[in-house]
Inverse folding.
């Protein structure tokens, strides 16, 4: 422990020196955040309790199971999990941006052969932990692909991303066989898990069909959706089916695809029934930011992600028949490629440290406000980040843990897991509101703000100090004023994510960045990856239902005040 603290002290001395010699981005004045627990805004919908990843076979591997267990334990509600490649042909080998289940093959006579063993192994892992699948219907089995060869890719970071889109991305050679596959999968799921359980899942078609994940046309995707929705509903009429999972709607091509799809499901001629419209129970699309390297440091672009979110909300709100449907942001992240590691994509250097955690806190808070402003029903936002089995330590993938050790970003979700009841007022006279972040991102003064909730026996305030530019600056002085508390003695817990707290990455660096940590070092890293208290819990007695907490909050730091009575 002495080694850890000494190394970190030296690091902070160096950081302070750098801060004093680096031009400060609009020197931050002391900030007061006013929280009124008596002013309820809306229920604290757990939109954060959604996760996803490309590689489905990681699900039941050692670190995959460990991480899923941890995620399930910090949430009081069922966590939904979305994974690609659940119908891809193959032997179940796990690889970057690849997975397979061999659910569908054909015999010598061309008759279907269904094999659910690997799909069941994936879903069993979720169900055993109280989690639920967002069951992604895709991609195309080799025997059904209209262009089956070549089929399997062997991509690695640094390779051409476009090389992955092979036979699994093509439309079916037989829509009826495809529909029967979907029917049999849903029917099998009901038999295995029960009708009530499967009714709580979300079935969706494909991923990002407006780009190369789908090698067909918009009309061919719509046709596939009609066949898929019909098959799902025939197997279980109360099942929930949705789409289209397009990339960010701020992009013109995405808007065209999304609106054509929504036009069809509301007023188009159904390819299967010939009637008007197609069943749709929820709507999905993606929203991503766009980091880059500027003057030698990472510069994020939260505004790009929020504009994607907002444009999608605007499109959905323009359809009266769809406006109240649940929306799931199927991938909602600081950028696009989880498997593009920092060593080949230096703009992804934000991923191991506290910049990822502060970005996550600030962006999720704005998702609530954007949806509220558009009057739409945001159910969840999938963080497309999981883990990559047996990779180099802290390689800079967009993941929640590395080799079974939690990274700082996971602790933001632990904080969200303690937020219950109703979302309450945090005064918006601070430097940024959701509109300014959407329109300008965070390029001038820092975004020091918060989100708060209150339940019958607790209240919580999450506070962040975020900036798009990851440059060292002095800590900010922050005063959190909370009113509306019960007039009684209560316990205050103050948790913190920063360079010294809840941060396995800084501890790993202080160890000398070992490529093969010892068993004792791994134990230290696992402990450092957990959410830590900044100070000891303390009893407080609010005066007239009010109290004030003052703190020094480092740039990219996140504090969490938890009041319990």
């Amino acid at each position: 422990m002495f080694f850890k603290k000494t190394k970190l002290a030296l690091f902070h001395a160096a950081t302070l020196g750098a801060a004093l010699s680096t031009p400060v981005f609009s020197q931050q004045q002391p900030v007061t955040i006013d929280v009124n627990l008596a002013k309820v805004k809306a229920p604290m919908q757990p939109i954060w309790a959604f996760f996803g990843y490309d590689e489905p076979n990681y699900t039941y591997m050692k670190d995959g199971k460990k991480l899923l267990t941890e995620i399930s334990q910090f949430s009081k509600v069922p966590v939904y999990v979305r994974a690609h490649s659940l119908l891809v042909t193959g032997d179940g080998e796990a690889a970057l941006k690849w997975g397979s289940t061999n659910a569908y093959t054909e015999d010598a006579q061309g008759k279907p052969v269904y094999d659910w063993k690997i799909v069941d192994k994936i879903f069993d892992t979720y169900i055993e932990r109280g989690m639920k699948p967002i069951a992604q219907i895709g991609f195309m089995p080799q025997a059904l692909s209209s262009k089956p060869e070549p089929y399997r890719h062997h991509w690695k970071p640094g390779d051409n991303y476009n090389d992955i889109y092979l036979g699994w991305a093509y439309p079916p050679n037989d829509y009826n066989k495809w529909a029967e596959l979907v029917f049999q999968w849903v029917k099998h799921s009901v038999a295995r898990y029960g009708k009530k359980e499967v009714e709580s899942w979300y079935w969706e078609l494909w991923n990002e069909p407006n780009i190369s994940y789908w090698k067909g046309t918009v009309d061919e995707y719509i046709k596939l959706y009609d066949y898929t929705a019909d098959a799902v509903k025939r197997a279980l009429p109360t099942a929930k089916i949705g789409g289209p999972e397009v990339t960010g709607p701020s992009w013109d091509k995405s808007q065209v695809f999304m609106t054509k799809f929504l036009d069809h499901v509301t007023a188009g001629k159904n390819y299967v029934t010939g009637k008007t419209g197609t069943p749709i129970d929820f709507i999905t699309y993606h929203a991503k930011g766009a980091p880059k390297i500027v003057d030698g440091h990472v510069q994020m672009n939260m505004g790009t992600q929020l504009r994607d979110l907002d444009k999608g909300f605007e499109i959905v709100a323009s359809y009266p028949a769809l406006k109240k449907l649940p929306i799931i942001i199927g991938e909602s992240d600081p950028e696009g490629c989880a498997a593009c590691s920092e060593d080949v994509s230096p703009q992804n250097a934000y991923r191991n440290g506290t910049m990822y955690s502060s970005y996550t806190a600030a962006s999720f808070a704005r998702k609530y406000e954007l949806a509220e402003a558009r009057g739409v029903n945001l159910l969840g936002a999938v963080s497309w980040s999981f883990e990559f089995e047996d990779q180099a330590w802290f390689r800079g993938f967009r993941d929640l843990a590395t080799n079974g050790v939690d990274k700082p970003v996971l602790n933001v979700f632990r904080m969200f897991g303690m937020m219950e009841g109703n979302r309450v007022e945090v005064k918006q006279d601070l430097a940024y509101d959701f509109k300014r972040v959407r329109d300008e991102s965070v390029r001038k003064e820092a975004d020091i703000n918060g989100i708060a909730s209150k339940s019958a026996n607790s209240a919580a305030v999450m506070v962040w100090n975020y900036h798009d530019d990851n440059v060292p600056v002095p800590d900010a002085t922050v005063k959190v004023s909370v009113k509306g508390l019960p007039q009684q003695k209560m316990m205050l817990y103050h948790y913190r994510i920063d360079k010294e707290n809840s941060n396995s990455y800084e501890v790993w660096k202080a160890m000398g960045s070992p490529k093969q940590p010892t068993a004792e070092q791994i134990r230290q890293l696992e402990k450092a990856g957990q959410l830590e208290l900044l100070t000891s819990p303390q009893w407080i007695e609010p005066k007239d239902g009010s109290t004030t907490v003052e703190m020094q909050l480092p740039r990219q730091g996140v504090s969490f005040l938890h009041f319990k009575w």
